[in-house]
Amino acid sequence: MNRPLAPRDSVFVRGLEFEGNHGYTAAERRGTRRFRVSIALYAQLNAAARSDKLADTIDYWKVSEIIVGVGTQSTFKLLEALAGAMASKIQQLYPRAELEIEIEKLAPPCPGVPQACGVRLQFPAAA
Question: Can you give the pTM of this predicted structure?
Answer without folding.
Answer: 0.91
